[in-house]
């Protein structure tokens, strides 16, 4: 079966849109899970002995450090409560 180039391009665009949408929903609805997943992916990449480019990629994938541990543990954008 031969797929037309235009049809293949449509499939690629739709697949990218679905992946971006799923990533957005995952970040908004499951921030803790996404954070743990990013850590699980990044830790093996930043170990000593890995190529420099792989360590840099791992640092980009790794989530930023948590500033407020006593906060809700979600998106880390709420900060401490102001009283």
From TrEMBL:
The keyword Membrane is annotated on this UniProt entry: yes
Concerning Pfam families, the annotation shows: DUF6587
InterPro entries, A to Z: DUF6587
What keywords would UniProt list here? Membrane, Transmembrane, Transmembrane helix
Residues that span the membrane, as ranges: 6-26
Its recorded name reads Cellulose biosynthesis protein BcsF
């Amino acid at each position: 079966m031969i797929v037309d180039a235009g049809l293949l391009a449509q499939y690629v665009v739709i697949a990218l849109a679905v992946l971006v949408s799923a990533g957005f929903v995952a970040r908004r609805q499951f921030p803790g899970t996404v954070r743990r997943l990013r850590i699980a992916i990044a830790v093996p990449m930043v170990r000593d002995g890995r190529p420099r480019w792989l360590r840099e990629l791992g640092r980009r994938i790794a989530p930023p450090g948590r500033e407020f541990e006593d906060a809700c543990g979600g998106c880390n954008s709420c900060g401490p409560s102001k009283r």
